[in-house]
Design a protein that fits this description.
Strand content: 15-25%
Shape: globular
Bound molecules: zinc ion
Radius of gyration: 17 Å
Distance between the termini: 32 Å
Number of domains: 1
Strand order of the largest sheet: 1-2-3
Number of helices: 5
CATH topology: NE0471 N-terminal domain-like
Largest sheet: 3 strands, antiparallel
Length: 143
């Protein structure tokens, strides 16, 4: 009799499991849709059948480059989380984030050239899948 697969996962272990490699089909896109004209965001259909979606706002705020990562760490934010607005007296108009172009980075990632000039972030399939913003995955993370 095998006990494989029957494990009691405590919180610490669950977090470690979160870093465990994902199945290949889960991080291999079958179809990538970038809704640039609509300005809405990106959608990926993975080979394991799951469909992920992210808004450009989320993607911009989740930029994985070292500078943005450190800024988020310092502010205690997780990827895609917005810094609470400091309510300026004269709010400046800020164009909603949208990529001017999106380029593949090898076979494992994409690079966004954002309309604010930023383009240092390399968004790996792994990073995107782990931060899937679909209803189902977000619910799973909250629980
Ligand atoms: Zn960045
Ligand atoms: Zn999902």
């Amino acid at each position: 009799m095998s006990h494989e697969g029957i494990r009691i996962v405590d919180e610490r272990e669950a977090r470690r499991a979160d870093r465990a490699p994902l199945p290949r089909e889960a991080v291999d896109p079958a179809k990538v849709c970038i809704h640039k004209t609509e300005g809405t965001g990106m959608e990926i259909e993975w080979k394991d059948g799951h469909t992920s979606g992210w808004t450009f706002r989320w993607l911009r705020d989740a930029c994985p480059c070292a500078t943005c990562h450190e800024a988020r760490e310092a502010a205690g934010l997780s990827p895609g989380e917005r810094r609470p607005a400091s309510a300026p007296l004269l709010p400046m108009y800020e164009a909603p984030p949208c990529p001017n172009s999106v380029e593949p980075a090898g076979r494992y990632a994409v690079v966004f050239h954002w309309n604010d000039g930023h383009s240092s972030g390399i968004y790996s399939w792994d990073f995107l899948r782990r931060n899937c913003q679909c209803e189902e995955c977000r619910k799973g993370k909250r629980e």
